[in-house]
Design a protein that fits this description.
Blueprint lengths: L2 E2 L4 H10 L2 E3 L5 E2 L1 H16 L4 E4 L4 H9 L3 H7 E4 L18 E7 L5 H20 L3 H20 L5 E10 L4 E10 L3 H6 L8 H9 L14 H11 L3 E7 L1 E5 L9 E2 L5 E11 L2
């Protein structure tokens, strides 16, 4: 395995479940989707007394990038790392005003949740404005929706989560792209919607939430952040995927790739949301 992202998370997660040790020494690329997925997969297994060993990438640049994204702030909690103290000499420079990334940020039930969501909003706005050239009204609408998705982790997932953002240049289209990953280990879409609707399985729950805009809230306007994200992604020709339980549902643009519906996947609680937005 030379890269870790949303594209090959299923292969990675299956290996993680069935092996005591995972070898990432050949990894040369990892994005926020791969990072938050890896961390919450490790957290899920460690909570079930299945702590794994993680052999870290051999690439110095990858290690420095992981450090820059605050990966090591969390990784040691859920994995036994090899080496235990990686060589991080010559760390990448940090700037609180960076406009290319948002470090992996925990979304937790705490007094500073509004500060955390505010940080996500501020950084996301700066990245989308500078690199994707979206107009202010569009950005503000998306930020409100993304904020609600983050708030929902606390409000109805009944757990905590992670969010990370990174800007890249997509050579295939010669355009900038922004990848946004949000994950949590909460009750998932099926259990959440089952409080109001009869739900057969995880795929039906994802379809009701994403395609039909249903929410567990009776109050109109509450719990519809995901539907707003979907509208934004459609408007700006982006890509969106959501994984919960043993199913994954994706909205794939003409320039994208992947399967729209996947079922029978290895069980992963909560939700794993990946968004890719394209420069206009």
């Amino acid at each position: 395995m030379t890269h870790l992202s949303d594209e090959n998370f299923e292969t990675f997660f299956f290996s993680l479940i069935n092996r005591d040790a995972i070898d990432l020494r050949d990894i040369t690329f990892i994005d926020p989707c791969g990072m938050v997925g890896l961390l919450d997969a490790g957290r899920y297994l460690s909570l079930n007394n299945k702590r794994k060993t993680l052999a870290l990438p051999a690439s110095g640049d990858v290690l420095k990038y992981l450090e820059r994204m605050d990966f090591f702030r969390f990784a040691g909690r859920y994995f036994d790392l090899v080496p235990e103290a990686p060589d991080l000499s010559g760390k990448f420079l940090r700037s609180s005003g960076t406009d290319v990334l948002l470090e992996i940020t925990p979304i937790e039930k705490s007094d500073d949740i509004h500060f955390i969501v505010g940080k996500v909003k501020k950084r996301a706005h700066k990245i989308l404005e500078k690199h994707l050239h979206y107009d202010d009204n569009a950005i503000n609408g998306f930020i409100v929706a993304l904020s609600e998705v983050c708030q929902n982790i606390i409000e109805h997932s009944e757990n905590t989560g992670l969010v990370g953002i990174q800007k890249y240049h997509f050579q295939k289209l010669n355009k900038n792209v922004v990848k946004i990953a949000v994950t949590d280990l909460g009750i998932g879409f099926r259990k959440s919607l089952a409080t109001r609707f009869p739900i057969r399985d995880d795929m039906e729950a994802l379809e009701k939430a994403l395609l039909h805009g249903l929410s567990r809230h009776v109050d109109e306007g509450r719990g519809h952040g995901l539907a707003a994200v979907k509208r934004f992604v459609n408007r700006w020709d982006g890509k969106l995927s959501i994984r919960s339980g043993n199913a994954k549902l994706s909205i794939i643009p003409d320039w994208g790739w992947g399967k729209k519906r996947e079922t029978g996947l290895a069980y992963f609680p909560g939700s794993y949301i990946n968004i890719m937005l394209l420069e206009v």
